[in-house]
Amino acid sequence: MTTNMISESVSETREKLWDHMRNPRMVFRTLSCGTNSLLLAYLPYLVDTVILQQVLLPYFERLPDEKIDPDTILGNVPVAHVTKTMDYRQVSDHLVRGWIYLQIEGMACGLLLYVARIPSRSLGEAQVETQIFGPQVSFTEDLETNLGVLQGYLSTDLLTNVTITIGKRSRTNVEVCYMEELAAPENVQTVIQRLRDLDIDGVIDSGKLVQLIDDNTFSIFPQLILTERPDHVSEALLEGKVAVFVEGSPFAIVGPSSFVDFFKSNEDLYIRWQMASFIRLLRFSALFVSLFFTATYVAALTFHYEMIPSALLVSLVKSRSKVPFPPLFEALLLEMIIEFLREAGARLPFKVGQTIGIVGGIVIGQAAVAAGFTSNILIMIVALSALASFTFPSYMMSTAVRILRFPIIVLAGIWGGFGIMLGASFLLIHILRQSSLGRPFFLPFFPFRLQDIKNSLIRFPFYSLGKRPAMTRSPDDTRVPDEARKKRPVQ
């Protein structure tokens, strides 16, 4: 412990900091201010050199000639954040975050001055969770900017932050945000405890962190929501949920989250409740289309010809007359081609990716039919299944559904309709067993909560949503008081 204590000698401090940092870009400056000898240590690519040259250095030059102590500078230095330290480890941790270390010769302590200029992009529109109505701004990689944007949406002192440093080598700052009177203490403590229990080299992005703190690592379904939208996080906090921000990541983690939450979009709150209800029902219908449409085709052609109407059966026979492969292989081939095109479009530059997705799909589809590899009807079915998966607001849930489509198709090709029911039953049982921060994942259907049904598959008018979700177990579960609902205008 004593080896990390700051020495009174400036030259010894310089050597110790060099041993701790080992950074060739480290800058050490010695200033003579009367009888005082000052040491400045900083990383030039992390500090704001304008503030250093035009504010701090002139201030140090105006220091009195007589002997001074750090407390004199502590109360007068023109910097917003100043902290006193006596530990080399604390100094090195702050230097890599854009702080300047100041020490006076003969003093066994120093000052840390915050003058950081961390490179980051400015606020822009959301790229992943796009929407027509509502706020268009998204988070950035700068943690302070994200917290400022969130505070702009929730201008209240109830918004509470807890800072945790994760990673033995990355030393990444993580902020846990919640509303003091709305979030259940057990939810907050669960998140904080899971973060503090992590023993890992480093965490670079929230996408990695969410896999380390969720309830079931082996489940394909995401149990915590990743979002880049400040309005989404704000609404979640008002429901009593907890949000986690990772330094360097533009995505926030929100929990606890139910299975239904992954099919909700914040845009549902900005349009009429009838429109929002229709769109939500459309998304849940798309879930079944994406999972079972292609599998139903394979099962019908392999085992259940009698279920197909005779008029349609004639078209199917003509369409597949030149196809040499069984329906199972044909369906898997087309599904793989669709996934190839989707992944290629996502990894290529934006304009090139769009062209590859459209032209590649048309050319490959027409060539496959002409060569007799597949039928026109299956191309339409696979295209509809792929299109349905794009309706989900959550990219993680959309990817999970895309992957699950393959084993269900295989089950349909092996056992027909029985295989589809077997796969659906397994998925349902698996979802019922999941949890999010210890809360049931399939709320409000299991356990059944009638009040929360009003904002699940459909969205009732706002005055009908008087209670917060049961999943959050908020200490204050009243969102709209009964008096306010009684006073609402009625035509």
Automatic annotation (TrEMBL):
Q: Which GO terms describe its cellular component?
A: membrane
Name the keywords, alphabetized. Membrane, Transmembrane, Transmembrane helix
Could you give a single Gene Ontology term from the biological process aspect? spore germination
Region called Disordered, residue ranges: 471-491
Q: Which residues cross the membrane?
A: 281-303, 353-371, 377-396, 408-432
The biased composition feature labelled Basic and acidic residues covers: 474-485
Q: Identify the Pfam families for this entry.
A: GerA
Keyword Cell inner membrane part of the UniProt annotation? no
Q: Which family does it belong to?
A: Belongs to the GerABKA family.
Q: What protein name does the entry list?
A: Spore germination protein
